[in-house]
Design brief:
Helix content is 43%, strand content 12%. It is of the alpha/beta class. Helix 5 links the parallel strand 4 and strand 5. The chain is globular, with a radius of gyration of 17 Å.
């Protein structure tokens, strides 16, 4: 697609990842169509999403796009609010699974007996999820050749959206109606890349 431009290899991979935003979304949305949560996940009273940098951007995009039935707070740091408890859903988002701040929040969430889920490609966070028996979405990043978290937005947005949908936490949408809207969005051929580039430019290093 970019063969006629004199680009570095890293730039080529970045542009390829951006071009594959839709494929990322389709992959993770369809992969976790049958995601199942235990009953405790449906007894929550508030939501926290923890992430840093490129792993927190999907949460900000979703919060500005959808209304949730319960209060939602995004944490970009080491600790959960003091009110987090067994009625709090904590969604841990770390592309690499090695983000220090998110792993710290994971420990706090477990100590506070929060209801835990999340999304990652692996690392220590995957071990935390599997070791604790927590339901989560594992990303197979075949459509992110750059391997940079900030270019994995399709995975992050539609992975977290799948979790919120399965837990019936979105206002105005039941699972069936959201399926139709997401299907439409993922097959839309409009040029979304300028919006992604602006969002990514605003991210801190």
């Amino acid at each position: 697609m970019h063969d006629n431009l004199n680009l570095s290899k890293s730039t080529e991979l970045t542009l390829e990842s951006i071009d594959k935003f839709i494929l990322q979304g389709q992959q993770i949305w369809n992969q976790y169509n049958s995601l199942v949560f235990s009953s405790k996940y449906y007894q929550i009273e508030n939501i926290i999403i923890c992430g840093m940098g490129g792993s927190s951007l999907p949460a900000h995009i979703l919060k500005s796009t959808f209304r949730t039935k319960l209060p939602l707070q995004i944490i970009e740091g080491y600790a959960l609010p003091s009110w987090a408890n067994e009625k709090t859903l904590v969604i841990l988002s770390s592309y690499s699974g090695e983000t220090e701040e998110t792993l710290s929040c994971a420990v706090h969430a477990e100590e506070n007996q929060c209801v835990i889920t999340g999304i990652t490609t692996g690392g220590k966070l995957e071990k935390f999820f599997t070791g604790g028996g927590y339901t989560f979405c594992k990303i197979d990043p075949v459509h992110n050749p750059s391997q940079a978290p900030r270019y994995s937005l399709g995975y992050g947005i539609f992975g977290i959206l799948r979790i919120l949908s399965k837990l019936e936490l979105l206002e105005r949408y039941d699972e069936q109606s959201l399926e139709k809207e997401v299907s439409k969005a993922l097959h839309n051929q409009m040029d979304y890349r300028h919006l992604l580039l602006v969002s990514l430019y605003l991210l801190p290093e």
